[in-house]
Recover the amino acids of this structure.
DNA sequence: GATCAGCCATTCAGTATTGAATAGCAGCCC
DNA sequence: GGGCTGCTATTCAATACTGAATGGCTGATC
């Protein structure tokens, strides 16, 4: 009924994540009775029961679980606000970057190393996630992603193109040999997605990319790559990365999936010096990395 | 330094939008001294000056303006949370829809009329905006848009395809006649974008869509349509809509720009009954509308 | 089965926050 | 220039909120 004080949302999120009033109180640096009262107040304001009390803690109702993502969105925005409030003097402050697990784990570290070397007072937070919506959820300031940004509020720069082709480890090829045909996979193992993401869907070289064609499936690109490296099977990998890792091309010309590499940030952040600094460093570093493929 | 209480963010946003402590206090149902203290506390916590006090009100510093979008994101999430907290019994509650100005102003009203007729206790909020990121900013629950959703957290359903072709009013054609060639526009006026959005960019039928080719420019699709209707010039319009409005096709087969129509919502909201209700009604209504073109 | 750890609800004193009232200031209109 | 309006800063009493302490409860552990 009455719109609740924002503090109450924070309390709700803390209780949901900690699982108890006491835990939430510890996390927020407050007392357990306070949290209890705040949750009660929120329930009264919204007119909905949020938790069923139990001696082991609070069990969230279905209603509370539905509210959770919204409270998390608030928390993400609050964190972004605090980051944005850091005075923007040269090469100082916090910048939060998101990238896929593979890119963040392989390509970015050397780029960030150089950046930190040049700007020791710059703090970097790296969020590895395969969700493409981190920026708009304000869970990061800058994103490295493999798709053109479609949202108007985002400012992006294309840093190059990168083909995904098929690769396997040298050991795997030694054991199983090169497959002769893309369609005939007998005797071979193909590593791929559990849930095929939208950007990867479709038909490539008469090869319908769908769940069923994969013999070993994971939605983590990191896990996929690790399995390819370990000789589990054949899988897709970006060419420059495969080259760096010493993987062996499979059916070299039969399969190619082009991707665009982008560095993206909020329009809001364009004016910030440190954001620009990191943005430009990422653009430059990725350009170099992608051009190594030639 | 210390991370501020969320109430302070709310105070910040209120002062930014109202322009004064007193105004913000009225808006929030609090007193002016309270708001003054909260802003002071926020400045102390963040270590940044947010406003310069003046007898006419508070003038935000550059820092405060940079924080504003984040605070707005929090407010949007809070509003979405409150909406989500409304008990989800059949055909009751609030649903917030976003669409472009033209679609929201022409296509949706009859659909929503029927929906309301069938569910009198359902409340509809319609946000007309040409920003494509409303959903992720949680400024709306359901979006009608002309592009495939690319973000993972969104659930979308394609309701059909709609071609954009060139049209003009009957009066305009009477005065200026039909142009004979797409490239030769002498004696004709072309209505289009000021800032060409990403989805409309590119080359269509050897026709590079860019700012310079337009003689009358607006970023509001509503204004564009109004100008076409008023006989200002030739412009792009979706075929079924143009048909409904009685516009005259121009260079009928020379120019065609295909668009997909989608209804999109958050994955989170899929389980909500009233969201489903509105979602399905929009899908059905738009399907009918788009099929009228055949 | 007794002990212990962890949790929530309640009480009560202390504190921190709030708001009404007031003073002071700048700009606008007659 | 006088009167008016709207704004901020400050004071002070009243209120609301907080947290330490306590009791009661359940479930795990030995």
């Amino acid at each position: 009924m009455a719109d609740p004080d924002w503090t109450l949302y924070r309390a709700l999120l803390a209780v949901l994540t900690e699982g108890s009033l006491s835990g939430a109180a510890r996390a927020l640096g407050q007392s357990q009775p306070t949290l209890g009262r705040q949750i009660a107040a929120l329930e009264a304001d919204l007119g909905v029961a949020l938790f069923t009390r139990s001696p082991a803690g609070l069990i969230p109702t279905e209603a509370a679980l539905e509210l959770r993502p919204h409270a998390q969105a608030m928390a993400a925005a609050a964190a972004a606000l605090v980051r944005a409030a850091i005075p923007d003097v040269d090469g100082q402050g916090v910048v939060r970057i998101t990238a896929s697990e593979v890119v963040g784990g392989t390509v970015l570290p050397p780029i960030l190393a150089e950046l930190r070397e040049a700007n020791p007072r710059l703090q970097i937070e790296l969020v590895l996630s395969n969700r493409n919506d981190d920026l708009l959820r304000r869970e990061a300031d800058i994103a490295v992603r493999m798709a053109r940004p479609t949202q108007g509020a985002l400012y992006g720069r294309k840093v190059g193109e990168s083909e995904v082709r098929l690769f396997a480890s040298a050991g795997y090829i030694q054991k199983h040999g090169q497959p002769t045909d893309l369609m005939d996979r007998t005797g071979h193992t193909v590593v791929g997605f559990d849930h095929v993401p939208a950007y990867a869907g479709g038909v490539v070289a008469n090869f319908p990319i769908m769940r069923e064609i994969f013999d070993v499936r994971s939605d983590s690109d990191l896990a996929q790559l690790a399995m390819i490296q370990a000789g589990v099977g054949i899988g897709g990998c970006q060419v420059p990365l495969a080259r760096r890792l010493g993987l062996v091309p499979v059916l070299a010309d039969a399969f190619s999936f082009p991707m665009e590499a982008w560095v993206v940030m909020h329009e809001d952040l364009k004016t910030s010096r440190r954001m620009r600094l990191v943005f430009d460093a990422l653009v430059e570093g990725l350009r170099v990395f992608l051009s190594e493929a030639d």
Summary: Chain A touches chain B through 47 residues (CB under 8 Å). The longest helix of chain A spans residues 62-85.
